[in-house]
């Protein structure tokens, strides 16, 4: 596709390279002081040419920890199902930097050497005909490629999880490494390639990322693992870590999807019956010297989709073992419903878990429910009655992509908001129009605490019972965002079936609750490039007990550009050093907003849209006002005749919110090289009518 240049740049100042840019809070010319986001020059933190999906954490000690994928020397070859390409396998790397009087972390030399914590890209646990051909005669080693890393911090403890094609241990209950039991699936749609299933892994550091324990395999690859996540809490007095990990396992392998939604496919959203969410946890007292090998519990199912049955009738794509021998369909786990895209959180020692699940309606209904659990970390659901999960979505609609925000009793304000849980909902299936709807947990985390209220019988796995549930309708945040008068929270999602909302994010700090989403008022006009996606925010007024009107924050007028992968970032809790160091005291009124940009496609079924650049802005008044955006990445993408582009930012801040840290992926459309980039910046009060230095204004 040829991309025309826009008539004007999205941000004239953002087109300048190699300078410090600012975001101004209020454009009124008579102000003499304003809040600005000042961004440093970015650096590349990855060492290879395949830097992938970076994440960043800031520990309580102030240490910065960046984790990313990259391909090491000597890596074996693998096939990437999502990207549909053969490439060297990736491992997971970690780099750390702690800012001090000698280090700003804005130079690569300030960062530690990379530590490989997965160490699987040069290894193989299975041979398959992954390049196509005879399932036995064309077998070759499939390298231990990793999916994206995911990381969570609890005090000084960092937990990194991932899924991998390296699954050497076939029986995790026995001592030592037992022969692999990993399976593989032939994808007729991909030139008859036979691709191995993935298994779940974890590695941890209990000393702020300085040292890391060995990676631990959590599943065997008998089912295909995907969508891993973790959560945890840390008692600084007792030095006690409580943490949990979840992931999904599909007995019939990762599905390609149907290409109807905005994603790239092969994401784990489309699943087979019998796909369950699995769980492992740990309760561990951190000692000195550091003990990084945490005693994770054996994995167990926490959903009830496998019904104890085997046998898949009419299976087209056959299954194989590591010897290239067919696996009988009678050995495949079977169920009616399948769980996908689980999210996990923890408040104290209570785990909260939410996921989307096919309805198990035997073909009568193709949509999904959103289900929710809240249980003690050390006693996950162990029987069918407790594994069902409460249906919190409208059972007659299609619900997906559930997210939540939570806080403990010591953090809530007078509004007593413990939980905000929100998702996409509408009649249509994948890619169809939807709204963002929400429930709030008032006074606790259990389904009984949710407002609007839920049917007490919401925890059922019987389809005929589920569709008769009488829960109150969730609050509709996005309905008619461009024209609402505020009296729309009770709108049916189909009241306006041309608008669409997605990419929902939020922040919860005491009584301050913001929920944002990408929104377009008309999908047809979007596809005709007569409209685009911008990011809108609604703020909850706890004192008044009402949602304020939605506000368009990004305000991109060029209809050829969409907002992509937005991030709302609130400040973290203050640390024990707050008494002597004000930068360690939380300022809940500061919130950052970052987002990527992407070419607006002519139609919904074109090739993936080209990524452009990343922007950032901030508010220091509780979201009442946001500044004009500043460019976070220097690269801008093909729309601006730049071969380099940036996407998928991750942001962290200091407790006082006046300093932030960000990473993202940088790619090159010509060479295919990708890198993990890092930048820091500051939120400052600046005198004058602009955040740009005078010399930068003159260069315009």
Describe this structure in words.
The structure is a single chain. The chain has 700 residues and is an all-beta fold. The strands form twelve sheets. Strands 1, 2, 42, 43 and 44 form a five-stranded antiparallel sheet that branches. Strands 28, 29, 30, 31 and 32 form a five-stranded antiparallel sheet that branches. It is globular, with a radius of gyration of 25 Å.
Short structural description:
By secondary structure, the chain is mostly beta strands. The chain is built from 4 helices and 44 strands. A hairpin with a 5-residue loop joins strand 13 and strand 14.
Summing up helix and strand content along with how strands pair, one would put the structural category as mainly beta
Mean pLDDT: 91
- Straight-line distance between termini: 31 Å
Helix content: under 10%
Q: Which parts are unreliable, with pLDDT below 50 for 5 consecutive residues or more?
A: 1-29, 694-700
Taken together, the total number of domains comes to 1
Number of helices: 4
C-alpha geometry = globular
The major sheet is characterized as: 5 strands, antiparallel
Rg, please? 25 Å
Task: Please indicate the percent range of residues in DSSP E strands (runs of 2 or more).
Answer: 35-45%
Number of strands: 44
């Amino acid at each position: 596709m040829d991309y025309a240049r826009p008539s004007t740049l999205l941000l004239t100042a953002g087109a300048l390279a190699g300078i410090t840019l600012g975001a101004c809070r209020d454009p009124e010319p008579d102000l003499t002081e304003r809040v600005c986001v000042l961004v440093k020059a970015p650096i590349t933190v990855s060492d290879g040419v395949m830097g992938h999906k970076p994440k960043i954490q800031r520990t309580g000690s102030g240490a910065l920890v960046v984790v990313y994928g990259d391909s090491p020397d000597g890596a074996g070859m693998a096939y990437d199902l999502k990207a549909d390409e053969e490439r060297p396998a990736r491992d997971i790397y970690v780099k750390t930097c702690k800012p001090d009087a000698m280090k700003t972390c804005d130079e690569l030399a300030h960062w530690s050497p990379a530590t490989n914590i997965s160490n699987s890209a040069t290894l193989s646990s299975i041979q398959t005909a992954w390049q196509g051909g005879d399932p036995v005669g064309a077998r070759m080693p499939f390298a231990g490629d990793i999916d994206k890393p995911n990381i969570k911090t609890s005090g000084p403890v960092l937990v990194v999880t991932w899924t991998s094609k390296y699954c050497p241990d076939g029986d995790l209950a026995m001592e030592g490494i037992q022969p692999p039991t990993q399976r593989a699936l032939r994808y007729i749609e991909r030139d008859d390639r036979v691709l191995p299933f993935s298994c779940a892994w974890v590695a941890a550091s209990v000393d702020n990322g300085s040292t890391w324990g060995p990676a631990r395999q959590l599943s065997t690859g008998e089912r295909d693992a995907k969508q891993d996540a973790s959560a945890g809490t840390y008692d600084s007095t007792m030095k006690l870590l409580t943490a949990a990990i979840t992931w999904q396992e599909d007995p019939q392998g990762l599905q390609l999807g149907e290409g109807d939604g905005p994603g790239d496919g092969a994401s784990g959203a489309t699943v087979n019956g019998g796909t369950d969410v699995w769980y492992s946890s740990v309760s561990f007292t951190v000692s000195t010297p550091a003990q990084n090998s945490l005693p994770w519990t054996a994995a167990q199912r926490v959903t009830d989709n496998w019904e104890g049955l085997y046998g898949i009738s009419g299976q087209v794509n056959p299954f194989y073992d590591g010897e290239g021998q067919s696996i009988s369909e009678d050995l495949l786990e079977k169920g009616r419903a399948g769980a996908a895209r689980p999210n996990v959180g923890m408040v104290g020692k209570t785990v909260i878990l939410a996921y989307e699940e096919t309805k198990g309606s035997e073909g009568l209904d193709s949509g999904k429910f959103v289900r929710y659990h809240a249980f003690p970390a050390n006693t996950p659901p162990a029987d069918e009655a407790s594994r069902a999960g409460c249906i919190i979505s409208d059972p007659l609609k299609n619900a997906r992509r559930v997210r939540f925000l939570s806080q403990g009793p010591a953090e809530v304000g007078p509004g007593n908001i413990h939980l905000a849980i929100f998702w996409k909902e509408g009649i249509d299936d994948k890619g169809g129009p939807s709204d963002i709807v929400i429930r709030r947990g008032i006074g606790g985390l259990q389904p009984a605490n949710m407002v609007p209220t839920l049917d007490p019988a919401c925890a059922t796995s019987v389809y005929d019972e589920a569709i008769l549930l009488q829960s109150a309708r969730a609050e509709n945040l996005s309905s008619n965002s461009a024209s609402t008068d505020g009296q729309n929270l009770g709108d049916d999602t189909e009241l306006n079936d041309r608008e669409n909302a997605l990419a929902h994010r939020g922040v919860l700090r005491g009584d301050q609750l913001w929920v944002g989403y990408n929104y377009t008022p008309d999908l047809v006009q979007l596809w005709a490039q007569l409209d685009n996606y911008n990011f809108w925010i609604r703020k909850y007024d706890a004192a008044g007990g009402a949602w304020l009107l939605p506000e368009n924050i990004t305000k991109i007028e060029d209809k050829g550009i969409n907002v992509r992968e937005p991030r709302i970032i609130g400040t973290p809790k203050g640390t024990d050093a707050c008494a002597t160091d004000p930068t360690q005291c939380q300022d809940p009124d500061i919130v950052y907003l970052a987002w990527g940009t992407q070419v607006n496609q002519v139609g919904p079924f074109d090739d993936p849209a080209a990524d452009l650049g990343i922007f950032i802005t901030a508010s220091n008044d509780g979201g009442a006002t946001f500044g004009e955006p500043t460019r976070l990445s220097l690269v801008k993408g093909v729309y601006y005749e730049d071969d380099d582009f940036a996407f998928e930012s991750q942001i962290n801040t200091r407790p006082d919110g006046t300093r932030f840290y960000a990473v993202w992926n940088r790619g090159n459309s010509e060479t295919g090289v990708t890198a993990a980039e890092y930048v820091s910046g500051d939120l400052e009060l600046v005198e004058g009518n602009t955040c740009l230095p005078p010399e930068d204004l003159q260069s315009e």
